[in-house]
């Protein structure tokens, strides 16, 4: 190799080295010019569309505050739960607001270290329906149980489900209507969603929640395993921890009528 050729080779090698470094830095963050693509499902007080047609709620506000702090814009879309999960599976979104943890979902998204809200799952029945619920799943055999598509009812219920009669529909509202009309015997739901809806439907005199919750689900932030979000998640987690330490997270919870969750996902 001639001296001039050797010099050019070294220069080209150095340029390629820096190109690789820059590329690595870029792909460690969400793409599309620092816009964070966020999905969620309509969850009362967590992620809803407000009277102006804009996404609102505790989860939405947390994402917006942290994204702004980290220098990101946000594109937040709320959609049916199954569609939001599909967007995450296909790598079309960077982050999901509020999913419950499950082994299946962990195959395509990483969950935040801590949840930001918790939901006890209760059994709702007609007030004249005879069900002596004591928290034991065998008691539910022989009763038709209404479920909402895409919801997670806990590992114990999922394992025992083959022994139960269940009927799944797309919405919580549809399940409460079916319950009131006697088309299902029991409906599994959390009070955050149920209380306001029962009042809205005028069913307070007909439907009640039984004591002894089925399980408690915890809602997290989910980060795409397909899109390059791992480094961003680390920064997000640190910013979320700062919200807790400064008391701002408690303020947001009180604003939306919620209590702060503080239970790790592995418990």
TrEMBL record:
Domain of life: Bacteria
Protein keywords: Signal
Annotated InterPro entries: Solute-binding_3/MltF_N (IPR001638)
UniProt domain Solute-binding protein family 3/N-terminal: residue ranges: 36-260
Family under the similarity heading: Belongs to the bacterial solute-binding protein 3 family.
UniProt protein name: Solute-binding protein family 3/N-terminal domain-containing protein
Organism this protein belongs to: Saliniradius amylolyticus
């Amino acid at each position: 190799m001639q001296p001039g050729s050797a010099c050019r080779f070294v220069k080209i090698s150095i340029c390629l080295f820096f190109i690789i470094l820059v590329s690595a830095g870029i792909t460690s963050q969400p793409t599309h010019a620092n816009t964070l693509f966020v999905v969620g499902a309509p969850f009362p007080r967590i992620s809803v569309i407000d009277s102006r047609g804009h996404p609102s709620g505790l989860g939405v506000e947390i994402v917006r505050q942290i994204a702004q702090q980290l220098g990101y814009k946000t594109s937040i879309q709320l959609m049916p739960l199954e569609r939001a999960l599909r967007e995450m599976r296909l790598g079309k979104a960077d982050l999901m607001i509020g999913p419950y943890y499950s082994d299946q979902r962990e195959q395509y998204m990483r969950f935040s270290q801590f949840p930001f809200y918790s939901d006890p799952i209760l059994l709702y029945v007609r007030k004249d329906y005879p069900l002596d619920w004591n928290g034991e799943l065998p008691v539910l055999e022989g009763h038709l149980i209404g479920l909402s598509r895409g919801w997670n009812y806990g590992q114990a219920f999922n394992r025992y489900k083959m022994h139960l009669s269940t009927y799944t529909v797309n919405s919580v509202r549809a399940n409460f209507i079916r319950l009131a009309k006697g088309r299902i015997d029991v409906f599994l739901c959390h009070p955050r969603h149920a209380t306001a809806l029962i009042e809205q439907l005028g069913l307070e005199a007909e439907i009640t929640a039984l004591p002894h919750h089925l399980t408690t689900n915890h809602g997290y932030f989910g980060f795409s395993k397909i899109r390059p979000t791992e480094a961003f998640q680390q920064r997000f987690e640190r910013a979320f921890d700062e919200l807790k330490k400064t008391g701002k997270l408690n303020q947001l919870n009180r604003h939306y009528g919620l209590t702060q969750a503080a239970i790790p996902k592995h418990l």
